[in-house]
Specification:
Number of domains: 1
CATH class: Alpha Beta
Strand order of the largest sheet: 2-3-4-1-5-8-7-6
CATH architecture: Roll
Shape: globular
Radius of gyration: 17 Å
Structural class: alpha+beta
Helix content: 10-25%
Largest sheet: 8 strands, mixed
Number of strands: 16
Oligomer: single chain
Number of helices: 5
CATH superfamily: 2,3-Dihydroxybiphenyl 1,2-Dioxygenase, domain 1
C-alpha cells in the first residue's frame, strides 16, 4: 500500500532556546527593538509577534517552526525520510533540526521579524531528497541561475524557503540546517551593534541576489542572519 501524500508544510516562525533568557532579551531588544509579553516568552516587533523564547540547557540555537494542517501525517513522512521525531522536534539525517506542528499562525514579515528561511547544507542532493520526501518542499533552481548551488523550495505552488549549498569557506562557520533571516534596514549597522553588545559577526555584511545580509551570533552563540531584502 502506498503511503499517504505528505501534506503542505510551510515555515511559520522562529523560537530561540537559550540558557540565558535575560541576556538574550536585552541583546535582541537592542538589535531589533523587540518588546516582550508579560511572561517574556514572546517577542514583538512593532506590536506584531516576531519570535518565541524559552530557557533550555545546552548550546543556544534558533529553531525554525513549520506548520501544516496534518502534523501527524507530516511527522510520519519525516520519519519515513530518515528523521528522528521527538514530539514537535524533528532531527533530520543531515544534521539539521526544526519544529513541526499544526495550526500555527504564520508570522507576518516585516522589520524585526523573520523574512526568509533557508536550509544550509554541504550535501545539496541529499538535502533536496529529504526536504521533498519529509516536507513536500521541492527544490527549483531559479531561472538564469548559473548552477544548482541555490534553489527555491516550493510548497503549494509558491516559493516558501531556500536551499543553499555551502561553499567550503562557509561550511566551516555556518551550521547545517535551517537558517532564519530577520529583516532590518541596515545590516552593516546591526552587525556593528551585535559585536559591541556581546555577540559576534560570523559572516560580514555582503550583497547576495536576495539583498544585503550578515550572519551573526548572539552572546550565547545562537546563529542567525539579518537581511535588507532586495527591492522587488
Amino acid at each position: 500500500m502506498n503511503a499517504a501524500p505528505t501534506p503542505v508544510v510551510v515555515p511559520s516562525g522562529i523560537d530561540l532556546v537559550t540558557p540565558d533568557l535575560g541576556t538574550a532579551r536585552e541583546f535582541y531588544t537592542d538589535l531589533f527593538g523587540w518588546t516582550y509579553d508579560a511572561d517574556g516568552s514572546t517577542a514583538h516587533a512593532d506590536g506584531v509577534p516576531a519570535a518565541g523564547l524559552r530557557a533550555g540547557a545546552g548550546p543556544a540555537r534558533w529553531w525554525t517552526r513549520f506548520t501544516t494542517d496534518d502534523a501527524r501525517a507530516a511527522r510520519a513522512a519525516a520519519t519515513r525520510a530518515g528523521a528522528r521525531v521527538e514530539g514537535d522536534e524533528v532531527h533530520d539525517p543531515l544534521g539539521g533540526a526544526f519544529r513541526l506542528d499544526a495550526g500555527d499562525t504564520v508570522v507576518a514579515p516585516g522589520p524585526g521579524r523573520p523574512a526568509w528561511y533557508e536550509y544550509m547544507t554541504s550535501a545539496p542532493a541529499d538535502a533536496d531528497r529529504f526536504l521533498a520526501d519529509a516536507l513536500a518542499l521541492h527544490a527549483t533552481v531559479p531561472p538564469g541561475a548559473p548552477d544548482d548551488s541555490y534553489a527555491l523550495l516550493v510548497a503549494g505552488g509558491r516559493p516558501v524557503a531556500g536551499r543553499l549549498a555551502l561553499p567550503p569557506p562557509l561550511a566551516g562557520v555556518l551550521p547545517t540546517g535551517w537558517m532564519v533571516y530577520v529583516a532590518v534596514a541596515d545590516p552593516d549597522e546591526v552587525a556593528g551593534r551585535a559585536g559591541s553588545r556581546g555577540g559576534r559577526v560570523v559572516v560580514p555584511p555582503n550583497d547576495v541576489p536576495t539583498g544585503r545580509v550578515a550572519a551573526l551570533a548572539d552572546p550565547a552563540g545562537a546563529v542567525f542572519t539579518v537581511i535588507r531584502p532586495a527591492a522587488a
